[in-house]
Amino acid sequence: MLPRPTLGFIGAGRVGQTLSRLWYARGYTVAAVSSRSFSSAEVCAGAVSALAVTDPLEVVRRSDLVLLTVPDDDIAAVAAQLAVMPLEGKAIVHTSGAKPASILDVVAERGAATGSLHPVFPFANVETAMERAPGSVFALEADGELRGWLEALVKSVSGQIMVIPHGGKARYHAALNFVGAFTVTMYDIATSIFRTLDMDTPVAHAALYSLMLAAVQNIQAVGLPKALTGPISRGDASTVAAHLVALDSPEIDAGILEPIN
After folding, report:
1. Backbone angles phi, psi at 122, to 5 degrees
2. Could you please report the per-residue DSSP string of the chain?
3. How far is CA 234 from the centre of its chain?
4. How far is 26 from 3, CA to CA, in rounded Å?
5. In whole angstroms, what is the distance from residue 114 CA to residue 146 CA?
6. Which of 36, 155, 236, 240 has its CA at a distance of 20 to 30 angstroms from the CA of residue 76?
7. Is pTM, for the whole model, over 0.90?
8. Integer Cα distance of 34 and 54 in angstroms
9. Domain limits, CATH 3.40.50.720, in the chain
């Protein structure tokens, strides 16, 4: 069995706070945390008995495995910042769902083992994520000893591992967004349409919640295409036509439907 690595986090937002706390609770040592906001680093570090630091290089010095839990567009810049020092014996991993592990090539050239570990979970807030993220799927890009470390991290939170084929990261992430971000978008469209009918009420929201939940449960229970319900599944062309006419009403702002046009 591989020895457990000492962890470090660069980025103390919702993902960094959640993952550091989950793994700390399962016996991992978190050595140091840095973030653009030092107050965020202090909050994250304080929850896991770690040191909050201003310099990301100090996180690397104190840790075996450094997780870059920063926005996607910041990963390359952070990696370049870390590449000023020798990195033999270190592992550096990002948690982006869209960026490939190769975005860390600049630190691999300095000797670091590199990879990515993407938790397939919507981190709306830390406390909810702490409760619900265990058992989630994690998408993994890594080889050798680093892969063993990452697999152990996932198993420690009862997670499942999904390996992404080389070159498939963006396509993988696009698929996730169809059922993640797009679900929220569709909910927003539905509530906007209800609002035009003065039906934006708790009961109306309860109707949408139950419908969304039942749709997911049907997919789990009977799979596709049997889970599809409603007029399209029944072939009710006249009902679909009536929907299109209703959605073309002047009472509905065309901007409401722009995300799906």
Report:
1. -85, 110
2. -PPPPPEEEE--SHHHHHHHHHHHHTTPPEEEEE-SSHHHHHHHHHHTT-EE-S-HHHHHHH-SEEEE-S-GGGHHHHHHHHTTS--TT-EEEE--SSS-GGGGHHHHTTT-EEEEEEEES--S-HHHHHHH-TT-EEEEE--HHHHHHHHHHHHHTT-EEEEPPTT-HHHHHHHHHHHTHHHHHHHHHHHHHHHHTT--SHHHHHHHHHHHHHHHHHHHHH-TTTT--SHHHHT-HHHHHHHHHHHT-TTS-GGGGGGG-
3. 35
4. 14
5. 8
6. 155
7. no
8. 6
9. 7-167
- 203: its two tokens: 């009961």
Query: Cβ(123)–Cβ(151) under 8 Å?
Result: no
Instruction: For 163, list phi and psi in degrees, rounded to 5.
Output: -95, 130
The phi and psi torsions of 129 (rounded to 5 degrees) equal -65, -40
Rounded Cα distance between 67 and 20, Å, is 9
Which residue matches tokens 């939170």?
A: 157
* Residues 227/218, Cβ–Cβ less than 8 Å: yes
At position 65, the amino acid (one-letter code) is L
Fold of the domain spanning 7-167: Rossmann fold (3.40.50)
Measured at the CA of 149, the angle between CA 170 and CA 64, to 5 degrees, comes to: 100
pLDDT along the chain (261 residues), means of 10: 88 96 97 97 97 98 97 96 96 94 96 96 89 93 94 96 89 89 88 88 91 89 88 87 84 71 60
Contact assessment for residue 69 and residue 97, using Cβ atoms and an 8 Å cutoff: no
Number of Cβ within 10 Å of residue 2's Cβ equals 11
Please report the pLDDT score of residue 251 as a whole number. 80
pLDDT for the residue 2: 66
